Amino acid sequence: MSVDLFCYSSLPVVHVAKVLDSLIAEHPGLFYSRTSACQTRFIVYEVSEANEVQKEIALEHGLVAASEFMISLNDKGSSNLVRTVLVLVRAALGTENVIIMSDGVLRP
User: Fold this and answer.
1) Rounded distance between C-alpha atoms, residue 6 and residue 67, angstroms
2) What's the whole-number mean pLDDT along residues 17-35?
3) Which residues contact 78 (CB under 8 A, 6 or more apart)?
4) CATH number of the domain bearing residue 46
5) Tens of pLDDT along 62-79?
6) pLDDT tier at 29, thresholds 50, 70, 90
7) DSSP annotation of 38
8) Dihedral sign (CA 4, 44, 90, 76)
9) What is the DSSP letter of 31?
């Protein structure tokens, strides 16, 4: 089962990158870390500036996106933790600053 979470944020790339680095450091067994030798459950990909298409997708859901990143399930046995990841990312970035989608659908 493939689970990719497409995340759009109204915050600048540099800020989101710092927040995600802290989140990864706080949860090393959950998220990919460059220094972690253990099997991680989710991979957080590099934050980049949202392109025009991504901005339009986010705007359809009420968010003016400045940045985007993806989180992918790396350990299929951890699919039950997707909800936890959603909660952690929203708490770290602020619910009003991020939307998360999967399969073209906004994740609650």
Assistant:
1) 11
2) 84
3) 41, 42
4) 3.30.70.2920
5) 999 999 999 999 888 899
6) confident
7) S
8) positive
9) B
Cα(8)–Cα(50) distance, integer angstroms: 8
Q: Which amino acid is at 103?
A: D
Residue-number span of the structural domain to which 34 is assigned: 4-106
Report how many domains make up the chain: 1
Give 62: exposed, middle or buried? Use CB within 10 Å, 0-12, 13-18, 19+: exposed
Cα dihedral across residues 35, 38, 44, 46: positive or negative: positive
What is d(CA 16, CA 105) in angstroms, rounded to the nearest whole number?
22
Q: Closest by alpha carbon to 7, among 95, 77, 79, 76? A: 95
